[in-house]
Design brief:
The protein is α+β, with helices and mostly antiparallel strands. It contains eight helices and 14 strands. The protein is 51% helix and 19% strand.
């Protein structure tokens, strides 16, 4: 029994040696049997390590290529979308420029007075607009848009990367051009704002002159209990709602609002000017001296106290007589003590009368415009010498013509 125990202890070292682990890349043998013969191939540990490394490299490269192919597809899609947005921004900038250019052109069309246009320094604006137009033309002519069909041709990773680079390159180029255009547009908008502010000042100045002229005649007519309101019975009040000019919208809100504001003031001035064409502001004869004023006077023939319904403007026989407002001729011809006589209805309650004429150039029913020659100074009828008897009536009541003659617009 003691010997058996001793025999087991002797074999333990050999069992431990048999179970010892071998290295992972230890030498290995591959045996091929064919026709009763055996061939042995030895695979060294170095060769095993090389094959495993090669397998890892190939696998990693395949995974990376697959990842990059899909990533490139996403990048191209994203760049394609960015390119479309850039193109849209470019078109929006050109649209803004065209809208601003058209708005200011419309504004100059509304301003008929050549003096006002000179004061606005129109030539400087046109030069700036021309510079921007030429830049837009150069950019448009030089731009070679990327074809979307070509972007979609992603047959290989190399082609996809090439298309991506082209899209990025064009986008960067277009962004640079847009930056130049934005800078030019900003300068142009600044110029537009300057012009609008000048137009606004001139419109306010013109409106103040008109209101002062109306106030001066109203001050005189107040003695006859009359008051002229240019907005009363006017076509402008036949419709409701605020005036909103048709101004195409631009991205610059401040500029857009200023355009609407200025266009509204220009419209007001244009309206008042149209109304004043029916108001006889100005002198019916260029060269004259006042021989008899409006109101009470001593009659030049019988020397009795009398009421003079107009003014007598002494002038040389044959001097031209002009109407200072548009209207329709109500009478033309002989009229008792008035001699050769013309009466014109100007509308808005105003009428003018011209007496003691040498000759009348207009006939009953004819229409006249401001500044039209209608007659010659004479001494017909109840007259002591060549002069023009001139009357102004408002709503059937004679008012002092001098208040109208002294107005300068």
């Amino acid at each position: 029994m003691k010997r058996g125990i001793h025999h087991i202890k002797i074999k333990k070292p050999s069992m431990v040696q048999y179970n010892k682990r071998k290295p992972l890349f230890s030498n290995k043998e591959i045996i091929f049997r064919s026709g009763g013969r055996a061939k042995v191939f030895n695979i060294s540990s170095k060769l095993q390590m090389f094959l495993v490394t090669l397998l890892i490299v190939v696998g990693t490269w395949s995974a990376y290529s697959y990842y990059m192919y899909n990533k490139s597809d996403q990048i191209i899609t994203f760049k394609d979308r960015e390119l479309d947005e850039t193109r849209n921004a470019y078109v929006d900038l050109m649209t803004d420029f065209v809208a601003i250019h058209r708005n200011i052109s419309s504004m100059f069309t509304l301003i008929e007075d050549e003096k006002l246009q000179d004061e606005l320094n129109v030539s400087r604006y046109k030069q700036q607009a021309q510079v921007v137009e030429e830049k837009i033309k150069r950019i448009t002519d030089a731009t070679d848009w990327v074809e979307e069909e070509k972007i979609e041709e992603k047959t290989t990773l190399r082609d996809a990367l090439l298309q991506r680079d082209r899209a990025v390159s064009e986008r960067n180029e277009l962004l640079a051009k847009i930056e130049v255009l934005e800078d030019s547009l900003e300068k142009l908008e600044s110029s537009e704002m300057e012009i609008l502010k000048q137009v606004e000042k001139l419109s306010e100045k013109e409106m103040n002159k008109i209101k002062e002229a109306i106030a001066s005649v109203n001050k005189s007519m107040k003695k006859q209990n009359k008051y002229f309101n240019p907005l009363a019975n006017s076509k402008k009040n036949n419709l409701g709602g605020a005036y909103i000019p048709d101004v195409p919208a631009v991205n610059n809100e401040e500029l857009s609002n200023k355009m609407r504001e200025v266009f509204g003031k220009i419209d007001d001035v244009s309206y008042y000017r149209e109304v004043l064409k029916s108001v006889p502001f100005g002198k019916p004869v260029w060269s004259y001296w006042l021989s008899s004023s409006f109101g009470k006077r001593e009659d030049p023939i019988n020397k009795h106290s009398a009421t003079h319904k107009g003014v007598d403007l002494a002038s040389n026989k044959g001097n031209k007589v002009k109407t200072m407002a548009k209207g329709k001729v109500l009478r033309s011809g002989r009229n008792g003590g008035y001699g050769i006589f013309v009466e014109i209805d100007h509308g808005n309650g105003f009428k003018t009368r011209y007496a003691h004429l040498n000759k009348a150039y207009v006939k009953k029913g004819e229409y006249v415009e401001p500044g039209d020659t209608i007659a010659e100074v004479g001494s017909t009828g109840r007259s002591t010498g060549p002069h023009l008897h001139y009357e102004v009536l408002y709503n059937g009541v004679n008012v002092d013509p001098m208040a109208f003659m002294q107005v300068q617009l």
